[in-house]
Design goal:
This protein is an all-beta fold. It has one helix and ten strands; from the N terminus they run E-E-E-E-E-E-H-E-E-E-E. Helices cover 3% and strands 65% of the residues. Strand 7 and strand 8 form a beta hairpin.
Length: 198
């Protein structure tokens, strides 16, 4: 497998209290199995192009500090392989999502504060989760991808299966108290994950 990545960020400091940052990142992977093994590879050949762009800001108003962020991600797969019937498949998949985060911290007094945050996230499926077939050596298990037909082991179109992107929503509240030689931090959170890949 060959992996190439690129990242760029631009930050603007409006003043000592307020700031803004923009960024982009990209990754390209190509995975090509060794030919001539006379076996169906556990993971098929694939190309993966992932790109993302984000913006985050921090703003201070009196005793409150506000943080907000938004991110867009796009992933493209081109997958080529053979199923158990030795039938060739060539699939192109695309996934995209917008994630957000918003938070606020209030200074209760000189030594204590409360912070609140809510965020969303996603996780596109890996090729192994969709197309894996056979023995996973490191897990000592037999695995079958989500796009394999249970009875024929043929690769199905992603639009023909009940497939949804894995997403999550998380909320966190944190109380912090400082003393001269001691610090206390107590957090409570809720994290709900939708459409887990199983």
């Amino acid at each position: 497998m060959n992996t190439h990545t690129i990242e760029a960020e631009w930050e603007s400091l409006q003043d000592q209290a307020n700031s803004f940052c923009l960024g982009v990142n990209g990754m390209y992977q190509d995975n090509n199995n060794i030919p001539g093994t006379q076996r169906i590879p556990f993971i098929p050949n694939y190309d993966n192009l992932s790109v993302g762009a984000f913006g985050v800001g921090k703003f201070v108003r009196d005793s409150w500090v506000y943080d907000v962020g938004v991110r867009y991600d796009y992933r493209y797969y081109n997958v080529t392989g053979f199923d158990f019937k030795n039938s060739r498949y060539d699939e192109t998949l695309q996934f995209q999502n917008v994630s957000i985060t918003a938070g606020a911290t209030v200074q209760l007094n000189q030594k204590s504060s409360m912070a609140f945050n809510i965020s969303s996230a996603w996780r596109p499926p890996h090729v192994a989760e969709l197309y894996s077939v056979g023995t996973h050596q490191s897990a000592a298990a037999i695995e079958y991808g989500l796009l394999l037909n249970d009875s024929t082991n043929e690769v199905m179109d992603i639009n023909d299966v009940s497939f949804q992107i894995e997403r999550a929503l998380k909320g966190v509240t944190t109380y912090r108290k400082d003393w001269k030689n001691f610090q206390l931090e107590v957090s409570g959170y809720a994290n709900y994950i939708f459409n887990t890949y199983t």
